[in-house]
Design a protein that fits this description.
The chain has helices spanning about 50-65, 75-80, 95-105, 115-130, 140-145, 180-185, 200-215, 230-235, 245-250; strands at about 65, 85-90, 110-115, 135-140, 155-160, 190-200, 215-220, 260-265. By secondary structure, the protein is an alpha/beta fold. It has an eight-stranded mixed β-sheet, with helices on both faces. Helix 1 (about 50-65) crosses helix 4 (about 115-130).
Length: about 270
């Protein structure tokens, strides 16, 4: 089974492809680390880097990676150019992240992730293939969005296959709750886009409901109650995703993939 974009999971023996490195409201669960400042929608996974990964990390991370902090990002300075900016929440090992960045050289892409061995695989690929339009942030995505990303600065936000936390008692840990939707909307430029994909039917219904309730969002595809033609006509970025091994396995198991696309209203 391929650990594509497999960053963080509900258990230490987790299912590849699930990741949601964000906090959700609740009492403090972890202390002493900026990576895990609150009750989160993820459980951390430990893992050492291989010698080759560590060498690549030491060479490349100082240029393309940062830890979560209170410093506002200057994306143009970091990338060395002004360009439309897309954030991917939960980039994991980054197979899809790298492919999309290479297919979209006109965009700059920031991946947010907490799991260092997953990030290390992406760092290796960035170095090996000389991908110039990816930067990485290691930490809690809500922390990043709240403290590092300016309002009205993102062209797009991508959240692919976040952990559904299927048990009812765990639903509060789900990434895409109303407060997170509002936070994402505040960081998008007018006309910017949130693109979500999930293979979990119940979670898809939940995401559709909280997205519909966000007053700054308008549905752009059928799953969000919008005109499917608007995705191609009005959106400032594309929505093609590479099909990962995880997604292929979901297809073989008969799980439908739901794509949900919203645009931020031009107020």
């Amino acid at each position: 089974m391929d650990p594509v974009n497999d960053a963080v999971h509900p258990t230490t023996q987790s299912v590849p492809g699930r990741r949601s490195p964000v906090s959700v409201p609740g009492p403090e669960q972890r202390t002493g680390s900026r990576l895990y400042p609150r009750v989160t929608s993820f459980r951390s996974r430990r893992g050492a880097l291989t010698p080759n990964q560590q060498q690549s990390w030491d060479r490349t991370w100082p240029r393309i990676g940062r830890e979560v902090s209170d410093d506002k990002l200057d994306a143009a300075a970091w990338f060395g150019r002004p360009a439309p900016l897309i954030v991917e929440i939960g980039c994991g090992t980054g197979t899809a992240t790298a492919a999309m960045a290479q297919d979209e050289p006109q965009f700059d892409l920031i991946g947010i992730e907490v799991y260092q061995p997953g990030l290390a695989q992406l760092v290796q690929r960035i170095e090996r293939e000389e991908i110039g339009n990816i930067r990485l942030l290691r930490g809690d995505a809500v922390d990043v969005l709240e403290n590092m990303i300016a309002e009205n600065s993102l062209t797009g936000v991508r959240v692919f296959f976040p952990d559904p936390w299927p048990k009812a008692r765990h639903h509060k840990r789900r990434l895409l709750q109303a407060p997170t939707m509002a936070l994402i909307a505040s960081r998008l430029i007018p006309g910017g886009v949130l693109h979500v994909a999930t293979d979990h039917a119940d979670y898809a219904e939940h995401i559709a409901a909280v997205g519909a309730a966000e007053p700054l969002f308008i549905g752009l595809n059928e799953a969000t109650g919008g005109d499917p033609q608007r995705v191609g006509r009005d959106a400032p970025m594309g929505f093609e995703r590479p099909v990962t091994k995880f997604e292929s396995k979901a297809h073989r198991a008969g799980s439908a993939i739901t794509e949900l696309v919203w645009g931020k209203i031009n107020s």
